Amino acid sequence: MKNKLDNYKSIGLVLSGGGVRGMAHVGLLKAMEEFGVEAKSVTGSSVGALVGALYANGNSIDDMLNFFKTTPLFNYQFLTIAKAGFIDTDKYVNLFKTYFPQDNFESLQKELHVVATNIQDGNEVFFNSGELIRPLLASAALPPVFSPVELQGQLYADGGIMNNFPLEPLEKKCDYIIGSNVSIISKLEKKDLKNSFQLTGRVTGLMIYASSKKKIEACDLLLESPSLENIGMLDRKGIEKAFTIGYDNACRTFEKLN
């Protein structure tokens, strides 16, 4: 199906963090496939890094959904008291090898950049070569649920802590950038801020959005769906719903480009 994006030689894709809401990224990828839109380079944070890696690896949409449906978020065998975190993130390495058996960036079909946070020196770090699985795990290791991942003698955790919308690797490299942001901030009523948990979640969301706002606005095409805010970040029951929301929104967007 021909559309305006056919005129661009180098399309880049930015995938934000956002937990289960990141299944909207997979919905976007399905729509891209159907409308003949292909990204040459991908960058992602947290769940966006995982989706981006599967896309760069050439996995099908069904494979992507299966990955998130079958990879356990919480497994009592992965519980740890020896590390900072309830779940030992390193226990996921063998599960990931089913999808990434060569375990390196160079084996991917597309250029991929993933961001993680060095929690020792407070800097964000991009990974795009060498070992693949452990940087992916680091990018998605949300504290305090998942333990940090040690890479090159340093401890790394969720990329969204420092950079939830990692546009930087694609700047001046791609002539058209598609952004998918699933960390949605919409207006709340006073009744939605009745306790400390709701307030903490709102403040955290606002901080993340504030650090991403200018980069989100810099995209040539942005995909956002306010209805994703009703899906909990760790609510596995929301996988199909988030996927459908992302797919429907992307299809409507691409139809307007024809």
TrEMBL record:
<keyword id="KW-0443">Lipid metabolism</keyword>
<keyword id="KW-0378">Hydrolase</keyword>
<feature type="domain" description="PNPLA">
    <location>
        <begin position="13"/>
        <end position="171"/>
    </location>
</feature>
<dbReference type="InterPro" id="IPR050301">
    <property type="entry name" value="NTE"/>
</dbReference>
<dbReference type="InterPro" id="IPR016035">
    <property type="entry name" value="Acyl_Trfase/lysoPLipase"/>
</dbReference>
<dbReference type="Pfam" id="PF01734">
    <property type="entry name" value="Patatin"/>
</dbReference>
<feature type="active site" description="Nucleophile">
    <location>
        <position position="46"/>
    </location>
</feature>
<dbReference type="GO" id="GO:0016787">
    <property type="term" value="F:hydrolase activity"/>
</dbReference>
<feature type="active site" description="Proton acceptor">
    <location>
        <position position="158"/>
    </location>
</feature>
<feature type="short sequence motif" description="GXSXG">
    <location>
        <begin position="44"/>
        <end position="48"/>
    </location>
</feature>
<feature type="short sequence motif" description="GXGXXG">
    <location>
        <begin position="17"/>
        <end position="22"/>
    </location>
</feature>
<dbReference type="InterPro" id="IPR002641">
    <property type="entry name" value="PNPLA_dom"/>
</dbReference>
<keyword id="KW-0442">Lipid degradation</keyword>
<feature type="short sequence motif" description="DGA/G">
    <location>
        <begin position="158"/>
        <end position="160"/>
    </location>
</feature>
<dbReference type="GO" id="GO:0016042">
    <property type="term" value="P:lipid catabolic process"/>
</dbReference>
<protein>
    <submittedName>
        <fullName>NTE family protein</fullName>
    </submittedName>
</protein>
